[in-house]
Amino acid sequence: MPELRKDPISGRWVIISIERGKRPSDFGMRISPKKGGFCAFCEGNERTTPPEILAFRQNKGAPDSPGWSLRVVPNKFPALHIEGKENRVGEGIFDKMNGVGAHEVIIENPDHNLTLSSLPIKSVEDTLWAFHQRMRDLKQDERFKYVLIFKNEGDEAGASLEHSHSQLIALPIIPHLVQEEIDQAKQYYGYKERCIFCDIIHQETSAHTRIISENDHFVTLSPFAPRSPFETMILPRNHESSFLLNTHFSQLAEMLQKTLKQIDKVLDMPPYNLMVHTSPFHDETNEYYHWHIELIPKLTKIAGFEWGSGFYINPTPPEEAAKFMRDAEI
Amino acid sequence: MPELRKDPISGRWVIISIERGKRPSDFGMRISPKKGGFCAFCEGNERTTPPEILAFRQNKGAPDSPGWSLRVVPNKFPALHIEGKENRVGEGIFDKMNGVGAHEVIIENPDHNLTLSSLPIKSVEDTLWAFHQRMRDLKQDERFKYVLIFKNEGDEAGASLEHSHSQLIALPIIPHLVQEEIDQAKQYYGYKERCIFCDIIHQETSAHTRIISENDHFVTLSPFAPRSPFETMILPRNHESSFLLNTHFSQLAEMLQKTLKQIDKVLDMPPYNLMVHTSPFHDETNEYYHWHIELIPKLTKIAGFEWGSGFYINPTPPEEAAKFMRDAEI
After folding, report:
1. What are the E-state strand segments in chain A?
2. What pLDDT, on the 0 to 100 scale, is given for residue A27?
3. Chain A residues near residue B98 by CB distance under 8 angstroms
4. Which chain A residues touch B310 with a CB distance below 8 Å?
5. Theoretical Cys-Cys bridge with A217: which of A94, A248, A263, B275, CB 3.0 to 4.6 Å?
6. Active site residue: A103, A132, A163, A165, which one?
7. Which fold has domain B3-327?
C-alpha cells in the first residue's frame, strides 16, 4: 500500500509509492561531462564578466584580475534589475511591481573541472562565507525582504554554465514557499511553543531511521515527506532562525561536502538543486523558524498531476534513501 | 525592466522578464515522433489492460473487446490503491495515512497516431464526457474528497505511453494547490462578494490583451501572471463552481481542441500538461470558486530558484503569448 505523508513544514502531502520502490540505479540521471571551451568564469577571463562585487584573494591583487580563489559577480542576464524603485501598482484587480532585485553569481573556485563535491574543503567554506557576506550586505538595501541562495548543478537541473557556481537573488517580497513554511512554523509554535524544526531534529535523531549524518553543529536527514527521491536537508542542530546567525562555517562546509559526496556516490553524480531557506530580513531572530539547506537531486519529472495538485509522487521512501546515503563509502 | 506580477488566484508571484522576451521558436521543445510497436491502449489489445471501468461503444459489444471509441481502465501501476481505509495516524509529530485513491486512464480514441489536438472532435467531446462521468461516479465513494484530471502529452511532460490518453486520480484529501486557490478565492469573495474568476473574465474580455478566444460559453486566456510561457486557461464564461455542473460539452470540446491546435501551431507541437481544477466534492456548488482547465506547455526548466522560492521566471509576457495564439492560422 502506498503511503500519504504530510510534510509538517510546508503542509504539503506526498505519495510515497513504496511498491514502485526505486533503487538508486533505476534513475539513470547523470550530469554530462564538462565540454570545456571558453569560459567566462575561468581565471584570466575576469574582464568578460560584469565587475566583481566580492572576491577572495591571497595576493591582494586588483579587482577583476587573476589570483582569486572565489569571485562574486552580477549575473550578466539578471532575472531582476538592481536599479529602480518597486513602484507597486494595480492593473484593475491585478497587482504588479517593478522587477527590482539583485541577481549575483558566486564562482566557487577558479578550476573549471571541479564541482562543489570535489572542491578543496577550503573553497566550500569560502563559498558559505561568500553567501553570508553577500546576504549581510544586501540586507542593508531596504528594498529587499529576502535573499534566496541556490545552486543548479548540471544542465538538467537548470545550470547554463558548467563551471561550478552558485547564485543568489535578492527579492522585494518574501517568496511563496518560504512564507508557507514560516506560516506553518508559526502555527506550530503558537500551539506548542516550540520550533517545529527543533522538534523534528529531536525526533529524528532519536529514531535514527532518516538520519544521514550528524556532527557537533549540524544534522543531515531525509525529510519524512520528501518531494522527490533522495531529497536531503541539512539543519543546524541547535535553534538558529537565520543563516546570518551561523558561525560554524567549517563544520557546515564539511557536512555539505560530505552529503554531496554521498549523493554523487549513491546516484552516480546526478544533476541537483541546492537551496538555502532562512528567515526574512525583517524577522532575523525568532523562535519558530530554523534555517536549513535543501538538496534535491533531479531524478523524476514534474508532470500534470504535480502541476495540478502540488502533490508529489515519490518512488523512494526516505528511510531507504537515508540508508543508502549512510552506507555510501565515500 | 522585468515585472513582478502576482497571480490573484494562487497568491504566487512570478517574474516576467520582458527583456529576455523569448519568441515561440526560441524554445525548441517538440514531442518525439511516435515509435509505434506494441501498445496496450490500441484496439485488439484490450485484454492487456486491467478490466475496463467505462467504455463508449456504438456496437454494444462486450467489455474489453474491440469496437470502442473510448475506454477508461485502472492504471496498471497506480500511484494510489483503490482498496482499504485511510487510517490516518501520527508518527510522533508527523502525519500519514494509507494511500487510498483511484488512478484511472482515459484512452481517448483507438487510433494510436492521433493526439488530442488531431482527434475527431467527437472524441474530444467523448473524453470530456468520460471525465464527467468518472468524476460523478467517484464522488459516491465517501473516502474521496477530490478528483484531479490531468493529461501529460509527450515524454518530456511525463507521458510514459505515446497513445493519447488522460488520467484521473481520486484523492482522500484536497490537493495543496487547489486548496490554496480556494482559500484565496474565498478571501476575495469575503471582501468583494464576487467570484474572483468572474472578475478576471470581466476585466480580461474588456481589455482583450490577454484573451485568446471566446465562444458563447467559454473564454480562453493567458493568465496575468503565468508560471511558464504560453500557460493558458479555459474558463466557463458564466459562474460555475464545479466541472460536475458543466453542460456545454460540445462547446468545450471545440474550445479545447482549438486551443491545442493553436499551441501546436505556435510552438510546433510542444510537450504539455493539462489539468482540470474544480471545487471539492463536499462543496460542489458555491459562489467563490470557478472551475477551469489549465494548459502548461513544457518549455522551461524548473531550477533551484523555482524549487526554493515557489517563484517562477517567465521569459514570455502573456500579452505576447496571447497575440501569437490569436494570430495562429489553424
Report:
1. 3-6, 13-16, 54-57, 68-74, 89-91, 94-98, 102-107, 146-153, 165-171, 211-214, 218-221, 232-236, 272-277, 292-297, 312-314
2. 84
3. 1-4
4. 175-178, 180
5. A248
6. A165
7. HIT family, subunit A (3.30.428)
Q: What is the mean pLDDT of residues A243-248?
A: 98
B165 annotated active-site: yes
CA distance A60 to chain B (A): 33
pLDDT band at B49 (very low <50, low <70, confident <90, very high): very high
Q: Which of A99, A178, A308 sits opposite B309 (nearest CB)?
A: A178
Report the relative pairing of strands B13-16 and A54-57 from DSSP bridges: unpaired
Supply the pLDDT for residue A32: 85
Residue with cell 532562525: A241
**Considering B81, B103, B163, B165, which one is annotated as catalytic?**
B165
Does any CB of chain A come closer than 8 Å to the CB of residue B70? no
Subunit contact B96:A173, Cβ cutoff 8 A:
no
Residue A58 φ/ψ region, left for φ over 0, alpha for ψ in the -120 to 50 degree band, beta for the rest: alpha
Q: Which pLDDT does position B59 carry in this prediction?
A: 80
Q: What is the dihedral of CA A180, A182, A188, A193, to 10 degrees?
A: -170
Predicted complex ipTM: 0.92
Q: Give the pLDDT confidence score for residue A218 in this predicted structure.
A: 98
How is residue A30 written as a grid cell? 547523470
Note whether A90 contacts B: Cβ–Cβ < 8 A.
no
For the purposes of burial, counting CB atoms within 10 Å of the CB of A158, is it exposed (0-12), middle (13-18) or buried (19 or more)? buried
* Whether the predicted pLDDT of B18 surpasses 80: no
Instruction: Report d(CA B120, CA B77) in Å as an integer.
Output: 29
**Cβ distance of B98 and A4 shorter than 8 Å:** yes
Residues of A in contact with B156 (CB under 8 A): 301
Q: Could A311 and B176 be called an inter-chain contact, meaning their C-beta atoms sit closer than 8 Å? A: yes
Average pLDDT over residues A143-161: 94
Residues in chain A closer than 8 A to B2 (CB atoms): 79-81, 98-99
Q: Please report which residue ranges of B85-145 form alpha helices under DSSP H.
A: 121-139
Sheet containing strand A13-16, strands side by side: A312-314, A13-16, A3-6, B94-98, B89-91
Q: What mean pLDDT do residues A16-42 have?
A: 84
Eight-class DSSP state of B165:
E
Asked if A61 has any chain B CB less than 8 Å from its own CB, the reply is: no
Annotated domain spans of chain B: 3-327
User: Can you list the positions of beta strands (E) in B108-236?
Assistant: 146-153, 165-171, 211-214, 218-221, 232-236
Q: Which of B8, B98, B225 sits opposite A3 (nearest CB)?
A: B98
- How would you class B89 by CB atoms within 10 Å of its CB: exposed for 0-12, middle for 13-18, buried for 19 or more? exposed
Asked whether the beta carbons of residue A11 and residue B207 sit closer than 8 angstroms, the reply is no
Nearest to B272 by CA among B101, B108, B30: B30
Average of per-residue pLDDT across A4-18: 92
Q: pTM here?
A: 0.95
| Beta strands A312-314 and B3-6, pairing class | unpaired
Q: Which strands form B292-297's sheet, in the order they lie side by side? A: B54-57, B68-74, B102-107, B165-171, B146-153, B272-277, B292-297, B232-236, B218-221, B211-214
Report which of B177, B216, B119 is spatially closest to residue B296, judged by C-alpha positions: B177
CB contact under 8 A, A308 and B177: yes
